[in-house]
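Annex B. Sample input.
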Amino acid sequence: MGGSVSVSEKSIHEFTVKDSSGKEVDLSVYQGKVLLIVNVASKCGFTETNYTQLTELYRKYKDQGLVILAFPCNQFLNQEPGTSQDAHEFACTRFKAEYPVFQKVRVNGQNAAPVYKFLKSKKPSFLGSRIKWNFTKFLVGKDGQVIDRYGPTVPPLSIEQSNPSSSQKPSKTTVSVVLYFLGRITMAATVVLSCSSSTKVRTWKRCSKQIKEQRARLYIIWKCAVFLLSSHD
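Annex B, continued. Sample output.
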């Protein structure tokens, strides 16, 4: 499944993937269906919420033409360490998944699955095209075109409430908040560096306490910024 996406591949329906047993599946069989394509993992902090809601979402909309395509991936902290069949059994047994769970793939890098190179090229995220974590979701229309992209923190059931025709761009408010956080990080880092460069023992003792405080603030600010950005993948 390596190689680059050719110019002729203009629709998701032009790709062939493999199921968990290694059998080839032509995605053209899903023409006329709405697809939600997800890179899944069994040992992730997002596993419980996403798998549970994916099962519920599929049962709710399968008769209206929704199909969920799950692709196990082990690229994020080795959180899908087993075989493709292990991942399939996990989804179907623990979370009663009735949708296809395919062969394990890579979603980033030179050896990323062609279908994922296509998805990322059609709908890059706020910080670039790379998949940031497990359970990134791509909504694909009946014509095989990518409609939207959702980050790992976006619950599957919330997708039904969104406007499929709208793009997943961060709001002006989110951008402003992120810029604020980045500004605070810069200010805190400046204090740490200025204190660290002091050669006076008396100044250093006073600054050491400030450094500890700023490090704690840096961590909190950074975690908040990462959460906001990950919600937009």
